[in-house]
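Appendix B, Record 12. Input sequence as logged:
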Amino acid sequence: MNTKVVASKKKKNNNYTVRGEVIGREGGVPGTCGAGFSTGAHLHFEVRRNGATVNPRDYLGTTLSWPMAHVRVSQEFGWTDYAQAGAYNGGPHTGIDLVSTDGYGASVHATGTGLIIFNGISGGYGHLVIIDHGGGLRTYYGHLICS
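Logged structural output:
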């Protein structure tokens, strides 16, 4: 498994990324290392403020940019029908799921400038990238294609 940092090696800190930089590709499908507990190709996008999950829609388009250019939201944040059916061990859906309308493997971009603090395999997230934007704000990008 390759867990190299995807931020540009031209920068002073290899873990530093800027808003809009490609950090991965959407689409870890079931049976691949990037899938985790995914039921199909999509990006699970999560925002945490001081360690607590918050609704990404409260930040997208304002504090943060969207992680993919052309998307369809396949599952919202919170107590979705899928969450109520027990999909998340009795808890709510912790992010939003995005499917690219450009097709499988679309570029996933950093939604804000920050430090990549994790880039590897993590349980249900599959291939996960976490960016720390400072001030207690972190973004999670799950179910990425393994490279």
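Confidence is low (pLDDT under 50) at residues 1-12.
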